[in-house]
Design a protein that fits this description.
By secondary structure, this protein is an alpha/beta fold. Helix content is 35%, strand content 21%.
């Protein structure tokens, strides 16, 4: 649905975060006379009325009946469409879309393809992968937009002048279905991996995987770049889409620390700034996508040396005495915490885990702590901290690692520093859980961690290259 097609319809906004504000500004610019209603929590209502000068009706009674009074509801990504109110309104005919859907519909050509656009999704590594993609495209001399879930809502980059030659778009599982609903087809879509995540939003692991895969199963990109090592992806059949596989010997893949294109050794990643072997492996996905756009990926690969890692993602803050502090606040699944531990294998690690409890299964994490080389200390915290602590207690009793329980992040940092003691080591914040409740988001959690470690939080939060350049 294009923005012009909203003319004359009953339209509401749902959510007044950055995405909701971006949608409001675009609609007011394109359709200044379109009546608009905003649904948001009562705590945000007064601010929304003041910010818009009373130019839209603001309501906090989010019920199925209230939503059903509108033909189209432009919903912020964090609001699940599987809630009771949304489901009731949908059964009455209300259509729910997001800013992502509007952006893709606006950029589609006559054949429905959004040319020179690469969408990136996956449970882990999508932000770094999208940023790396933009970095290498810019290294080719092309003006490139780095947008989407990474920190710049698509509607804030609806019609830039001059327009970029390429778009690198990060999509969360909340947004992939929006691309399909737009009726547009990305030129290239990358799916990196699939692990259980956001189960409170999606309702089940099966629905999460299905929603994530809608980027390739329903949006039908011209080319899908897929991870052959992921069993969910390896089983896919996409009759309307050309599939390019990475992480397999015939395509882009890693041999040790060296990136290969088939049998050709291309680039040694061992001294690159990419944090973690999984991110170096995702370089293969980026190079496959660049090649799918018709560029010389072999020639561009060495430009990874000038890449600047993203904040809150295995970000080394620095040293304080004999302690090195690493901020992986974006880690919101146990799999992410395991990947972070792998990056520091062989070092003395105090791992900080726990946060908002979404019901994710931690048994696989605990099994790895029993079978692999564990950290020397683990500090649990947050709402799911006691549950994780109880699962780890038998291993701690057997002497596998020291185990501590903290009430909050400041106590967790203090316990970790004390536990590492004079020998020192790595204080690793990789919570494996969201920050909801204690913090507004993972960025706020990472900032607080930096402060507690004695570093300037403002110096660690900027995302290099965000926007159009």
């Amino acid at each position: 649905m294009r923005i012009s097609q909203l003319e004359g319809r009953r339209v509401a906004l749902w959510g007044w975060g950055r995405e909701g504000r971006a949608a409001y500004r675009v609609l007011r610019q394109r359709l200044p006379d379109l009546p608009l209603t905003l649904f948001c929590p009562e705590a945000e209502a007064a601010g929304a009325r003041e910010e818009t000068g009373g130019a839209l009706e603001v309501r906090s009674d989010v019920t199925g009946q209230a939503l059903a009074a509108f033909e189209v509801v432009i919903k912020s990504p964090g609001i699940s469409p599987y809630g009771e109110a949304a489901q009731a309104a949908a059964r009455s005919g209300t259509r729910f879309i997001g800013g992502t859907s509007l952006w893709f519909a606006e950029h589609a050509n006559a054949d429905g393809v959004v040319r020179d656009t690469v969408c990136v999704t996956g449970t882990k590594g999508k932000s770094t992968t999208t940023s790396l993609l933009a970095h290498l495209l810019r290294a080719s001399g092309a003006r490139t937009g780095l947008v989407g879930n990474i920190g710049l809502p698509l509607l804030e980059a609806l019609d830039p002048q001059p327009a970029p030659q390429y778009w690198a778009v990060e999509l969360s599982s909340y947004q992939t279905g929006d691309v399909a609903r737009s009726g547009a087809r990305p030129q290239v879509a990358i799916v990196l991996n699939l692990f259980p995540e956001h189960l409170d939003w999606h309702g089940s692991e099966q629905r999460y995987i299905a929603d994530k895969l809608r980027l390739v199963t329903a949006a039908m990109p011209r080319i899908a770049v897929l991870n052959a090592a992921d069993p969910h992806l390896a089983a896919l059949e996409l009759p309307e889409t050309e599939i390019v596989w990475f992480n397999q010997p015939a395509g882009w893949h890693m041999v040790g620390e060296v990136v290969h294109r088939g049998a050709q050794a291309v680039f040694d990643t061992s001294d690159t700034p990419l944090p973690g072997r999984h991110n170096r492996g995702n370089l293969c996905a980026v190079l496959a996508a660049i090649e799918a756009l018709g560029l010389d990926a072999v020639a561009l690969a060495p430009a990874v040396q000038s890449f600047r890692p993203l904040p809150n993602r295995l970000q080394t803050l620095g040293l304080r005495g004999n302690l090195r502090f690493v901020n992986d606040s974006i880690s919101t699944t146990p799999h992410a915490s395991l990947a972070a531990l792998e990056c520091f294998r062989g070092e003395r690690i105090a791992l900080l885990v726990g946060g908002h409890d979404r019901g994710l299964d931690w048994h696989d994490f605990v099994a790895h702590m029993g079978a692999d080389q564990p950290p020397v200390e683990i500090v649990t915290m947050g709402a799911n901290g006691p549950r994780i602590h109880a699962l780890l207690q038998p291993l701690a009793d057997a002497g596998r690692f020291g185990l501590h329980a903290a009430g909050d992040l400041p106590e967790a940092v203090r316990l970790a520093c004390n536990a590492l003691g004079r020998e020192g080591g790595v204080v690793l914040l990789s919570p494996g859980a969201p920050s909801f409740g204690a913090y507004r988001d993972y960025v706020a959690r990472g900032r607080h961690f930096a402060e507690l470690a004695g570093f300037d939080p403002d110096a660690i939060t900027a995302i290099p290259g965000l926007g159009i350049a």
